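Exercise 7b. Backbone tokens:
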């Protein structure tokens, strides 16, 4: 999926988080979205995902089949972010099964295979609220990376991951992301993965 941002801006009350952003992300490209805290990285990701509407400007989504309307882009996107919560009263296996009904996993993977991949095979019956922060993050990333998508958005993917978890995260991208466009927002170098391009947001 190709993404074109034209004169994008976002304003809250009387303050502009950013404005007049022009950016073109080629299909299959991996982009590192950088910037210090408060620069608007998460806000820009939410705009690209269609969750937020820009105060000005336009986002275009293009595939080999033609343009995609903003209202339909969610069907093509997977996203993981610290502010996206899991259903705390579902078990690990239940949330994977629910996800499979909404968005198929790659290669028609079974729930058992998915839990094995993210090292949660022994926690299949545990409720999400019983998991550690690192286990929750691996599950969030698994649900996003292993599902079918044309655009993968990751906001601070290394949150709550130790060194082994970071190695697993990079291996997951190597294994399951072949042709999708990827945008990774962070100010931590270890969160980025084979990024071909970088774009830096400056606050204000």
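Sequence design result:
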């Amino acid at each position: 999926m190709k993404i074109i941002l034209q004169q994008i801006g976002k304003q809250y009350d009387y303050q502009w988080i950013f404005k007049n952003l022009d950016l073109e992300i080629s299909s299959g490209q991996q982009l590192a979205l950088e910037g210090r805290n408060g620069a608007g990285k998460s806000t820009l990701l939410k705009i690209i995902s269609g969750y937020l509407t820009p105060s000005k400007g336009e986002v275009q989504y293009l595939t080999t089949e033609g343009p995609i309307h903003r209202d339909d882009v969610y069907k093509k996107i997977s996203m993981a972010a610290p502010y996206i919560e899991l259903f705390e009263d579902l078990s690990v296996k239940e949330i994977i099964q629910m996800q499979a009904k909404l968005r198929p996993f790659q290669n028609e993977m079974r729930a058992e295979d998915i839990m094995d991949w993210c090292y949660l095979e022994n926690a299949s019956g545990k409720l999400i609220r019983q998991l550690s922060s690192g286990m929750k993050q691996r599950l969030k990333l698994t649900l996003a990376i292993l599902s079918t998508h044309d655009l993968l958005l990751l906001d601070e993917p290394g949150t709550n991951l130790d060194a082994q978890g970071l190695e697993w995260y990079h291996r997951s991208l190597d294994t399951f992301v072949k042709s999708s466009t990827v945008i990774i927002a962070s100010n931590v170098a270890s969160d980025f993965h084979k990024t071909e391009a970088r774009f830096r947001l400056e606050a204000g």
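Instructor comment: Strands lie at 2-12, 15-25, 30-34, 56-63, 66-68, 77-80, 151-155, 181-185, 197-200. The CA atoms of residues 130 and 204 lie 40 Å apart.
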